[in-house]
Amino acid sequence: MEKIIIKSKEQIEGIRKSSQLAGNVLLMIQDYVKPGVSTLELDNIINKYIIDHGAVSATLGYYGYPKSSCISLNEVVCHGIPSEDTILKDGDILNIDVTTILGGYFGDTSKMYTVGKISDTADKLIKTAKHSMDLGIQQVHPENVIGNIGFVIGRYAHSQKFSVVYEYCGHGVGIEFHEEPQVDHIARKNSGEEMRPGMIFTIEPMINEGKASTHTDKTDGWTVTTKDKKLSAQFEHTILVTENGFDVLSDVSGEYK
After folding, report:
1. Which residues is 241 bridged to in the sheet?
2. CA end-to-end span of the chain, whole Å?
3. CB 171: neighbour CB atoms within 10 A?
4. What is the pLDDT of residues 172-186, one digit of tens each?
5. For residue 234, is it within any domain?
6. Is residue 3 part of a domain?
7. How confident is the model over 228-245, as pLDDT tens digits?
8. ∠ CA(191), CA(197), CA(199), 5° rounding?
């Protein structure tokens, strides 16, 4: 098993800069999310912004992944490949997931967007996914254990009559795209690794309207959908464990200050 990397002050600041850039990508792209726009158009705008800011996309070419972001609509849980054939329409919900490499450091974040008027169910699902992530973030402090993140997320999502995807998880990040520890979004209370200052990982719960099980497209090898074709929603931040709590490195709006 790989060792969890405790980051130095220099590494933390590098990861913070990359995470801030990734967060700013998500703010920037908001104005372009509207009916009639293709997800490929969004990806092209994202890629240009990343390059213009002296960075590169971590997803482009990652194990053959063909684009600079993951854009996942409606029943797509994650790893949606931007396409000129996927056109946004009124009522759609979508997750845009961006990972940047800036100065050799990785920053990873995602959020939900809406197109026009969405259903009440979709609205509740998005709010539940966001609050689930926030509850997980509140668990981040030294001497707590990783499993308690998934425990509180699962408890809350289930209370809202939604399910939590168990086949994909958060992960250590910063020096590499994916590092230890694995951060499950549904877990037993008081299980898993102890959190220590200098650990950096993502919390990125995927919450489903229906059942938790997923299906991966056999043609492209990437696109993950809900098996029952019901909606899915996800939010993600890159989090640092500090001496007395947490620092949301990808927060560019001051929400967690």
Report:
1. 246
2. 34
3. 18
4. 999 999 999 999 999
5. yes
6. no
7. 999 999 999 999 999 999
8. 70
Both structure tokens of 59: 């997803």
pLDDT in tens, 116-166: 999 999 999 999 999 999 999 999 999 999 999 999 999 999 999 999 999
- Maximum CA pair distance of the chain? 49
Q: C-alpha 165: how far from its chain's center?
A: 13
Q: Is 63 helix (H, G, I), strand (E, B) or coil?
A: helix
Q: The pTM is what?
A: 0.97
CATH number at residue 91: 3.90.230.10
Whether 85 is covered by a domain: the verdict is yes
Asked if the structure places residue 4 within a domain, the reply is no
Residue 1 has pLDDT above 60, yes or no: no
Number of domains in the chain: 1
Structural domain boundaries, residue 88 = 9-248
**Pairing of the two strands 105-114 and 163-164:** unpaired
Give ∠ CA 104-14-234 in degrees, rounded to 5: 85
Distance of CA 84 to the CA centre of its chain: 23
The CA distance from 68 to 58, in Å, is: 7
* Nearest to 156, CA basis, from 137, 139, 135, 141: 135
Measured at the CA of 52, the angle between CA 220 and CA 18, to 5 degrees, comes to 75
CA distance 151 to 136: 8
pLDDT confidence band for 257 (50 / 70 / 90): confident
